[in-house]
Amino acid sequence: MAKIRLATVWLSGCSGCHMSFLDQDEKILELAGKAELVYSPIADVKDFPENVDVTLVEGAVGNEEQLQLLKKIRRNSRILVALGDCAVNGNVTALRNSLRNGDEEVLKRAYVENASLNQGVPEQVPRLLKRVLALNEVVKVDVYVPGCPPNAELISQVLNELLEGRAPVLEGRFKYG
Amino acid sequence: MSKPVELTIDGKKVTAKEGETILEAARRNGLYIPALCYLEGVSSFGGCRVCVVELKGSPRVFASCVTPVTGGMEVVTDSEKLRRYRRWAVELLLAERPHVCSVCVANGSCELQQLATELGVDHLRVDREWTDYEVDLTHERFAYDPNRCILCTRCIRVCDEVEGVHTLDLMLRGKNSKVIFDLDENWGFSRSCTSCGKCSASCPVGALYVKGKPLSEVKKKDLVSFIMERRSEK
Q1: CB-closest option in B99, B120, B147 to A170
Q2: What is the DSSP string of B11-44?
Q3: Which of A139, B37, B159, B192 could form a disulfide with B48 if both were Cys (CB 3.0 to 4.6 A apart)?
Q4: Cα dihedral sign, B173-B175-B176-B181
Q5: Average pLDDT, integer, range A67-79
């Protein structure tokens, strides 16, 4: 059987979901036998490839670059999995949505108020979106795996079910937060 | 002595007391119906719609916490239709205010979070409201974060019916409704509040809580029913 093409993506999140993904211990070896990692923060690949079977996306959509990337991911992926609370509903990343002009406020807090050197909002980084978006506010999502982070066992189960061609039903198995 | 009423719940014959609700009858007979705004020991108002059931012979669904039993009633507590209704009820509650479990004091002991798991509400199909209500930390022992409130009114009913002071009430309407102290005072300045803590003990989420303590320690869902039972024995 040909290996499935697996990708993992890190948008606006803390990388905790990727940590949990790596925390599958020996099951990650089994996974390596069944899947080829074609794009990931832990693989040195610059552009999101075509014909990806399963893509795990961690994090919410916080800036223009991520917005474009997510649309490309959707075009190139057969199954798109929202991994973790940020991807599913915005979570901590989207807390700035409660502020008026949250995009400007967080930049000001990070780069002006809390900076001791070179105060000023950098211009080289992608523009923040006015409002942080969950994945399903931008594209169609096939599977949702909530959790902050989702535990390694759940990620492993979901991946195995997907590899076997089943649609995972998360009822009773996940926990927000 | 009230007359016993015979009915069936999910095909099982049960005996209920006259005037009892479907939810009470089910629970007393060890049958599970999910519920959220319902709190044993105080009045029910059928607000959250999580406890809906079907009755044979009617196309409607009924909130089991406010529907009294009648003889010969055939109740269905679990069906695809009911699951769909319950999921929507929980989903809309999650969308109405910024419920961010990972940074909530109630994480792990929250009834809304548990219901989302149980009913499989693993994402939201509607836009979320990102409210920015001010958190009230003026009381020396308790805190109130309206951003986490689901308007179940348990606190209001407990304060009124059990403590007997009615410090808490609702202001405004619809999704703008807000639980307030006295005439929308800060909690710490409320003159009627006795600081008994039954409101925070009954809060199903992390809206009302005791400062500096994990919710798993202070949340006592059964406190009110315990008090009411003791009072009725007097």
Answers
A1: B120
A2: TEEEEEETT-BHHHHHHHTT-----SS--TTS--
A3: B37
A4: positive
A5: 98
Q: What's the rounded mean pLDDT across residues B69-83?
A: 97
What integer pLDDT is reported at residue B1 of this predicted model? 56
Q: What is the ipTM of this complex?
A: 0.93
Nearest C-alpha of chain A: how many angstroms from B145? 14
Q: Which of A92, A97, A134 sits opposite B102 (nearest CB)?
A: A92
Chain B residue with Cα closest to A102: B130
Instruction: Name all domains of chain B by residue range, CATH numbers in brackets.
Output: 4-78 (3.10.20.740), 85-233 (3.30.70.20)
pLDDT at residue A59 is higher than 80? yes
Q: Tell me if residue B106 falls in helix, strand or coil.
A: coil
Query: What is chain A's length?
Result: 177
Residue A100 falls within a domain, yes or no?
no
Give the CATH number for residue A139. 3.40.50.700
What tokens appear for B81 in the block?
């239709």
Instruction: Report the relative pairing of strands B178-181 and B168-171 from DSSP bridges.
Output: antiparallel
d(CA A144, nearest CA chain B) in Å: 6
Percent residues over pLDDT 90 in chain B: 93
Domain that holds residue A80: 4-93+130-163
Distance, in Å, from the CA atom of B170 to the CA atom of B160, rounded to the nearest integer, reads: 12
* Amino acid identity at B27: R
Banded model confidence at residue B105, pLDDT cuts 50, 70, 90: very high
